[in-house]
Amino acid sequence: MSSFLRCVKTVVSFLRRLVHCGGDRKPDPRPWDPPFDPSQPSIPISYPITTLEALASRSYFRSFHYPFNRSSVPLPPSAAALPPRRRILVCHDMKGGYTDDLWVQGGGNPDAYAIWHWHLMDVFVYFSHYLVTLPPPCWTNAAHTHGVKVLGTFLTEWDEGRVICDTLLLSKESAQMYAERLTELATALGFDGWLVNIEVKLDKRQIDNLKEFVGHLSRSMHASVPGSLVIWYDAVTIDGKLDWQNQLNMQNKPFFDLCDGIFVNYTWKDEDPTSSASIAGERRFDVYMGIDVFGRNTFGGGQWHTNVALDVLKKDDVSAAIFAPGWVYETEQEPDFQTAQNRWWGLVDQSWGILQNYPRVLPFYSSFDQGHGYHCSIEGLQVANDPWNNISSQGFQQPLLNSPNGPSSTTVEACINFKDASYCGGGSITARGNLENNSFFSTKLFHGQLQLEDQPVNISYSVRSDENSLFGLYLELWSEISGQTSILITADTQPFTVAGLEYNRTIKPQIKDTKADVLADAAWFIHEVTLTMSGYTLGGIYIVGALKNPGPTNIEMEKSPIRENATSENSGFLPYRASLGHIRILTSEPIVEFPPAKSWVIQGHDISWILDSDGNRSLNLKVAWKLKEGYAMSFTRYNVYVERLMIHTDGNISDRVPSYVGFARVEAFFLSKLGIPTGVTALRFIVQACGVDGSCQQLDESPTLELAVQG
């Protein structure tokens, strides 16, 4: 795209948003618009509640889609209370909301928008221009994995919003009732509270009931969801005027006093954070000063200057509310979304630094899956070749990938590789480039706060590399008694030693080197080590790389005791390429014991056999499963497969190869228009439970549902 066309596109995107976050136009027709009937079986979607009548009637809970929209990942107990420091709230507003993320079971866009910089935020708000915005469960699952709270949005705006407020605020009882309905929704769907945005002018006589609504919502949320939040948006004042204050003051503080914080409108001036902090007193961290990434009259200009406002808020020691970071995606910033997204969030990182640390608890597992890709793998086996997206697939993200920090010049860079076969999900970390002889590179993956106990810890990871590329892990640990130490995990320490990498201890991993061991149709090798570091805390986790066999000049250099005499004239570069598929950290004791197939109840519901005019058969079906009584176990992911069986008259069965059809985060999966080839007489569905440690039950030990083909 030419720079001129890109400029025009940016201006158009800018103009489609008006001055305030409640001023955007509603999007084009959506799947939930009439004649949509939420009670009828269909592909599960996330959708908002658009009327007070629907909110009051609890009709959402009678929807076919409701069970699919429950998040399955709870907020970690360590994240229940917000930290006593300045914080970052991220408000996601992109193209009216409910885009690729509305498809609960995933969509087919491999380039769908996603966030993977969870370590830079504390609270995530899902925003759209509807009355009640319910966060799609994919966002809650991903955010909770990383210890980030998730809020929905309650919004009234324009003339329609004034009419809504007349009903909402009719009495103290009506205000309480609607607050309780919002609490029920958040509790049932598993998210953590609400952003309340009243962007209409009110009669001053309605203010007492508005205060009752905010206060009752806060009290009921706190009683139902420990650690929940209600955040007030800076719009209507205590006098009923629609007058954005751009600071915390006596015009909006009465609402602030009734809830957990205020999202200050983003056209504040240099002195407003200081005055807001003064008004807030001990609650200064509950003041979230708005920053509009699109730059609409926002302090510092937003966009690639978002850090200007962040630097001021850091100095004034108040919190920040970053609005619409999807600007990077919407305006197609160059050179591509992955690069631009990392660059933009890098501004946040450089200004405020890391806010979330992981790993913090065991088990810890990451396959570096961002929730989209061009293929899908499970434990090293590629199960699908179709493009896909589903943020619910995200495990712990590794946004700390940065420029190599080895001692020598190198062109090796580490990034998420969506092209080559992954170990699990749709991507892996690949380090590639040219590496100088007798040098190494290192890149930080995670910055943890994992306290290690007396029992041994098992670390396993999958690697695929070129013949001459050596790959390892480098761990930083510290202890109050013994101080800092480091461990290098690699099959051969000599190239790293020659290259000058400093470490205190080495461990040589055991390597499973057969495809049968790793179920891989590519050359993934599983490396495993066990270590005991009682009293230590695991901090930095790095990937490191070196060349196994340096060039001839380097061999001569190894014989010299003074490596510093080497010059660019007698050193060379050789290609380096290695990939990391996953990392798993466990205690030495088994984490997951999968229940046998007979312990499950698995059923088919809403079965519809379809025969089109060309004689092609297909099936609509909801598969649901649950453990029988007596099994106190839960799983947060299930892979779903189908076998299309041809049962012959002699009883023999042919074509029993399982086909992957998707995954669920709840105990149900809906199949739409599943094709049934000619000759197939039965379908067998397999539900494969997966543990929090990334392990999966063997398919031949998983529960099944068999249906005879009809029609």
From TrEMBL:
<comment type="function">
    <text>Endoglycosidase that releases N-glycans from glycoproteins by cleaving the beta-1,4-glycosidic bond in the N,N'-diacetylchitobiose core. Involved in the production of high-mannose type N-glycans during plant development and fruit maturation.</text>
</comment>
<dbReference type="InterPro" id="IPR032979">
    <property type="entry name" value="ENGase"/>
</dbReference>
<keyword id="KW-0963">Cytoplasm</keyword>
<dbReference type="InterPro" id="IPR057882">
    <property type="entry name" value="ENGase_C"/>
</dbReference>
<comment type="similarity">
    <text>Belongs to the glycosyl hydrolase 85 family.</text>
</comment>
<dbReference type="Pfam" id="PF03644">
    <property type="entry name" value="Glyco_hydro_85"/>
</dbReference>
<keyword id="KW-0326">Glycosidase</keyword>
<dbReference type="GO" id="GO:0005829">
    <property type="term" value="C:cytosol"/>
</dbReference>
<dbReference type="Pfam" id="PF25529">
    <property type="entry name" value="Ig_ENGASE1_C"/>
</dbReference>
<keyword id="KW-0378">Hydrolase</keyword>
<feature type="domain" description="Cytosolic endo-beta-N-acetylglucosaminidase C-terminal">
    <location>
        <begin position="593"/>
        <end position="709"/>
    </location>
</feature>
<dbReference type="GO" id="GO:0033925">
    <property type="term" value="F:mannosyl-glycoprotein endo-beta-N-acetylglucosaminidase activity"/>
</dbReference>
<dbReference type="InterPro" id="IPR005201">
    <property type="entry name" value="TIM_ENGase"/>
</dbReference>
<dbReference type="GO" id="GO:0006491">
    <property type="term" value="P:N-glycan processing"/>
</dbReference>
<protein>
    <recommendedName>
        <fullName>mannosyl-glycoprotein endo-beta-N-acetylglucosaminidase</fullName>
        <ecNumber>3.2.1.96</ecNumber>
    </recommendedName>
</protein>
<feature type="domain" description="Cytosolic endo-beta-N-acetylglucosaminidase TIM barrel">
    <location>
        <begin position="100"/>
        <end position="375"/>
    </location>
</feature>
